[in-house]
Predict the structure of Peroxidase.
Amino acid sequence: MKEYYTAIVLSVFLLLTLATTSVQGQGTSVGFYSRTCSQAESIVRATVQSHFRSDPSIAPGLLRMHFHDCFVQGCDASILIDGSSTEKTAGPNLLLRGYDVIDDAKRQLEAACPGVVSCADILTLAARDSVVMGVEMGRVSLASDTSNLPGFTDSVDVQKQKFTAKGLNTQDLVALVGGHTIGTVACQFFSYRLNNFTTAGADPSIDPSFLPQLRALCPSNGDGNRRVALDTGSQNSFDTSFFTNLRNGRGILESDQKLWTDTSTRTIVQQFSGPIRGLLGLRFGIEFGRSMVKMSNIEVKTGTQGEIRRVCSAIN
């Protein structure tokens, strides 16, 4: 059963308020819950803040969960549904975290406004608020449906194909990957780059002076589940240092570093990481927000297309 994505459209994702521009033609509208559940935003925000205080790593977890949800048959909160072969069980989603935050918010919202706020909107609000934390400090999709998620070894061409299929352009690709400015990744997803990547040794796109640090964090035959910052030196701040690291050969994931080595995306990385020059300069915070709006409107569900789940992990 689909969960419909009733309300939320985000403009500048870093702001605490909802967007000021309505996109009702896309099936969403601003301030959707202002009359039916006026405390919806404040409940979600307080829940995210509470979990963030005890575990700051929950912020990138929620952001990543929202991204993974939207790329598989749209932003319908299907990522939250339990089951033996559901979307949640697919390989790319096994290490996602933040489900407890969504469940916590849903329990409070059901107590305050029973049957009103959709799980899809809760996830979107939680993702938005998780970004704010970093700045200041449906249908049951199957596991097999996750093949269109961007992969950590994907070439830029493959990444662009996957984003284009969702109505997102190359600038959206670079901006949304910039969400890796917060959070961590397990060694198993990049340690292959450190040794025997080529006959000559490590991935040549890695800064040679950075290799000893990475090898110390993820030694051969070490713990593949050990977590390493995706944005070295700034993993808890939502900023542009991620792009500076790409310019310096310090991208952790192969797919991330390719945004610099590929000429079709390098200019955008330069614009996000460098100083603003006149009106043509790109501000990462603004462009990230715009791209999040576009992604959050992928295949939205409205009206009779879905249901408001009582519990986010199961269909009614």
Notes: Confidence is low (pLDDT under 50) at residues 1-28, 137-145. The chain has two domains: 39-148, 168-296. Residues 149 and 312 are 22 Å apart (CA to CA).
